[in-house]
Amino acid sequence: MPYRRTPRVQARLDAQRAAILAAAAALLAEWGYAGCSVAAVAQRAGIATGSVYRHFPGKAELVVELFRGVVSREVAAVREAAALAGNPVDRVATVFETFAERALKAPRRAYALLAEPVDPPVEAERLVFRRVFRDLAAGHIAEGVRAGLLPTQDAAFTAAALVGATAEILTGTLTTDNDTTGELRPFILRAIGSRDA
User: Fold this and answer.
1) Which of 82, 83, 88, 126 could covalently link to 143 via disulfide, CB atoms 3.0 to 4.6 Å apart?
2) How do residues 115-143 score in pLDDT, each as one tens digit?
């Protein structure tokens, strides 16, 4: 008969996994991907390094799970903000403005999410992250086209270009003292062909 964990043992393992993820989140926010080593995570969580490896094969897999959690919270916040905006054009701009505002509140973490050199599994997750935002913006762009507020266009293409441009703008802002995010809304409106531009 195979070994089955008792509810008490499972609860302890779940709590340890949560502590590992919380420690990794704190390190990522303070030091970025480079400072989020397995040893540093274990020390921050107050456990042995081997305990981290019981839950995650390595640093990349740990950060991938962490990215997924962060991205789901960011997407939820952006979706919520966009839903409160007026028309589809406003919703497109709000998607990117909200993303930028939230990034600037946690600049080190945002840089890790957007541009810091990372291992291939984390880079793959970064692409998923960008596609989620692309699809969110594309839905609002397509809605704007259907409503006659925007010219006919490939909504997914436009949204992908805007995600890339926004990431580049934010990377520049996060790595220099030159904050150009105030120009984001006018740029977005021009790029989607809004008459309000």
Assistant:
1) 88
2) 999 999 999 999 999 999 999 999 999 99
* Residue 136, H or E segment: helix 120-146
Residue type at 54 in one-letter notation: R
Q: Which two tokens stand for residue 77?
A: 């916040």
Tokens 């959690």 locate to 69
C-alpha atoms less than 13 angstroms from C-alpha of 68 in its C-beta half-sphere: 8
Q: Looking only at Cα atoms, what is the longest distance across the chain?
A: 69
Tokens of residue 166, six digits: 């926004």
HSE, CB side, 13 Å, CA atoms: give it for residue 171. Answer: 12
- Rg (C-alpha) for the chain, rounded Å, is 20
pTM of the model: 0.86
Between the alpha carbon of residue 89 and those of residues 103, 138, 197, the distances in Å are 22, 11, 10
Closest CA to 59 of 31, 20, 30, 29: 20
> Cβ distance 42 to 36 under 8 Å?
no
